[in-house]
Amino acid sequence: MTYLIIKTLHLLAAIAFIGTLFFQVLILTPVNRRLDSATRQRLAPALGQQARHVIHVVAVLLYGAGIALAWPYRTLLANPSASTFATLLTVKIILAFMIIGHYALLIFLRRSQRLGERGMDLLNVSLLVHAVLLVICAKSMFVL
Questions:
Q1: How many domains does the chain contain in total?
Q2: Cβ contacts of residue 109 below 8 Å, gap of 6+?
Q3: pLDDT digits over 43-90, tens only?
Q4: Which domain holds residue 12?
C-alpha cells in the first residue's frame, strides 16, 4: 500500500510540475508578449512568486517520492547497461539531475541579474524538453 501511495504522489507531482512548465512555455509566454509593459510589470511579480511557491512544494514531493521509488533499484544502478530498465532508470535520474541543474542556474542568473526575458524563455523551454524526455523514459521503463 505504501508503494502505491508513493507512486501516486510521484505521478501527481510530475503532472503538476510538467503542467506548470507547459503553462509557462506554451500559454503564459506568448500571452505575455501581447501585454503592454505596465500590465506585465504588475502581473509578473505576482505570477512569479506564486509559481515559485507551488513549484518548490511540488519539487520536494516529486524528488522525495522519486528517491523512495528508485531506492529498491539501487543495485541495478551499479550496472546501468545490464538491462533496458536499468539504462532507462539511469537516464531518468540523469535527466532529473539536469532539471535540478537548470534551477540552480536559474537561481544564480536571477541573483546576479544576468537573466533577461529571452534567457528565461529559453531556460523554460529547455526545462520542458528535459521533463518530457524524463516522462518518456519513465513510461518506457515498464514497456521495453
A1: 1
A2: 115, 119, 123
A3: 888 888 898 889 999 999 999 999 999 999 999 999 999 999 999 999
A4: 2-141
